[in-house]
Amino acid sequence: MRVARLSHLAIKVSSLDRSEAFYGGVLGLSVIKRWQDEGGAPRSVWLAMDGEAFLAVELAHAPSPKRVDEAPGFHCLALAIAANERESWRAKVLSAGLSVERETPFSLYTRDPDGFLVALSHYPVAAE
After folding, report:
1. Which of 2, 23, 71, 85 has the fewest CB within 10 Å, making it most exposed?
2. Cα–Cα distance for residue pair 68/87, rounded to 1 Å
């Protein structure tokens, strides 16, 4: 018996609109489904990832302190890109008014609207 694959990743966000603009607009993940709560208000947006996996962007209903990168917990969401598209991704991130916070030979790092670290990674192929 073993776990075979990632089903989905759910993240809590302060704004569905801003997060959909980032994950859907900037990163190009397509919307699979929008969910509403019992009162008909937007609750969640599901965005397609590779295969059957999806990213569930869920509206948070409570304020909380921002997580620091050095604290225990999930560190970042790493999304696969082609190594030869690295500079195009850099330009897209910058043109969206975001920054490339740091980088390695394998990844560019930026932040989503709530400050969550997102890597655009082409591991195991290093940048030239």
Report:
1. 2
2. 28
